[in-house]
Each structure stands twice: as C-alpha cells, then as structure tokens.
Design goal:
The protein has about 100 residues and is an alpha+beta fold. About 25% of the residues lie in helices and about 40% in strands. A five-stranded antiparallel sheet has the order 1-5-2-3-4, with helices on one face. The longest helix has 15 residues.
C-alpha cells in the first residue's frame, strides 16, 4: 500500500514533558487510526535518564530507561509508521514541544 510510509524525527534539544504529552494526546486522538506504530527515545527536560516510548495506534507507553552515558549526544529520536503521515506537520508539532 503506497499510502503507508514512515516519518523519522531527530532533534537535539530537550523536550518539555507537559507540551509533549498534550501534543501526543491530540495527535493520537485525531490520527491514531492511521498511526500504526510509533517508537523512540526522548531527551526530557529535567530527567537524567533517557525516556523510551512505543505505541500502537492510540495505545502509548513511555518509561524511564538508563542514564545518558557521559559524552553521549542527548537527542530525541522518533519514528512514526502509518498511513497518510504528514512529515512537515509531525515535525512542526514535535518541535513545538521543545523546551
């Protein structure tokens, strides 16, 4: 199916957890049926640990992972797989969550 694509986003800044939660909630409510899978690693403001997340359609789970390693480049890396994904809108929506 040519309408199924993936969108990868990588941003080095910290993410604001309140803004991120609001954006993801809205995204999954409005486009959850078309987002087959989501996953990634987040650089959450104020957290010394990586936050790992994964989702299937409207189900979403996130948890603290290991500490960032000394010298490791802290960044956010997200991947969305689904149908009719708008790369520009997803990227802009995520960037609006940066601290």
């Amino acid at each position: 199916d040519a309408s199924v694509t993936s969108v990868g986003i990588e941003e080095p800044a910290e993410v604001d957890p309140v803004k991120l939660n609001a954006w993801l909630s809205e995204l999954l409510q409005t486009q959850g049926q078309d987002i087959y899978r989501s996953k990634g690693i987040l650089n959450v403001k104020g957290s010394p640990k990586r936050v790992v997340f994964q989702g299937v359609h409207m189900l979403f789970e996130a948890s603290a992972d290991r500490l960032w390693n000394a010298g490791e480049r802290r960044s956010n890396r997200l991947v969305f797989i689904g149908r009719h994904l708008d790369r520009a809108a997803l990227t802009a929506g995520f960037r609006a969550c940066l601290a």
